[in-house]
Amino acid sequence: MDDPQLKNKDLRMALSQATDRVTLNKVPNKGAHVPTTNWIPPDRSGTKLGTYDASIGFDVAKAKASLTASKIASADVKLTLLLVDSPTNKAIGEFLQSEWKKHLGIDVKLEFVDSKTRSARFNATQFQMVTGGWQEDYPDPENWMIGLWESKGSINKTKTNIPALDDLISKAKFNQSDETRRQQYRDTEKLLLDGVNGIAPLWHTGNHRLVKPYISGMKESKRPGDTFVAGDWNPENWKTTKK
Predict the structure, then answer these.
(1) Strand 203-204 versus strand 129-130 pairing type
(2) What does the pLDDT read at residue 236?
(3) What phi, psi does 188 have (nearest 5°)?
(4) Domain 9-206: assigned CATH number
(5) Which contiguous run of DSSP H or E holds residue 129?
(6) What is the torsional sign of CA 6, 110, 61, 54?
(7) Collapsing DSSP states into helix, strand and coil, what is residue 104?
(8) For the chain, what are the domain ranges?
(9) pTM of the prediction?
């Protein structure tokens, strides 16, 4: 957020609005995930999927208008996207690169590095744009905000700085009214996303598994371990009819 060009809210908006998340999921990601403009998963926040589509979702006309509002000529935009070197990430990077060129006339460079280098550079904030994600530690909206997006957050590597967001998080942390604090986290998400402040969500990761027809009892829960195998926190309830 302290990059000379990415400080420009309208340029950030243009890049987000010029990104076709549905096709991104269908082609490079082979339909594996859930395209979204939400940051916090809806079953954590209570915010409907697609809530932010109208403001930061794919809309070429809006993207072009945002670029015009930025007062930066497309030829003058100099940006590099950092990604971990892998076949899937190459496809993702090339897709994003082509979207921004096709809809905005912007040439974005791609830089592929090994995962260790990417982590080091992310932690040192040595990037302009970078792909990444978040795996929750526990199923609550606060785990998607605290430390990540406060101006002095320990994991705020994008240097997002929104005083109103800081204030809301500080209030929500110790709010004893569960519904009130959840609304405060919904409000922080809105502050974060309405200006593409440090992040433009692309998808929520889908987890896929095959279960033999003779296995039962693998019931989903909201505990984070279940993102890998349904019911892996209570294997004592698994049953099989196979002898």
Answers:
(1) unpaired
(2) 75
(3) -65, -40
(4) 3.10.105.10
(5) strand 129-130
(6) negative
(7) helix
(8) 9-206, 214-243
(9) 0.90
Q: Give the residue carrying structure tokens 């060129």.
A: 101
216-235 per-position pLDDT tens digit = 877 666 555 555 566 665 67
The kind and range of the H/E element at 64 are: helix 60-70
- Which residue type does 138 have? Y
129-130 vs 79-84, strand pairing mode: parallel
Place of tokens 């971990």: 84
Name the residue among 242, 224, 221 with its Cα closest to residue 234.
221
Distance of CA 61 to the CA centre of its chain: 23
Chain segment 117-153, per-residue pLDDT in tens: 999 999 999 999 999 999 888 889 999 999 999 999 9
Secondary structure string (H, E, C) spanning 128-168: CEECCCCCCCCCCHHHHCCCCCCCCCCCCCCCCCCHHHHHH
End-to-end CA, the chain: 59
Residue carrying structure tokens 């979207």: 99
What span, in angstroms and rounded, lies between the C-alpha atoms of 94 and 91?
5
Q: Which amino acid is at 192?
A: L
- Report the candidate in 192, 168, 196 with the shortest Cα–Cα distance to residue 182: 168
pLDDT in tens, 41-81: 998 999 999 999 999 999 999 999 999 999 999 999 999 99
| 2-25: average pLDDT | 97
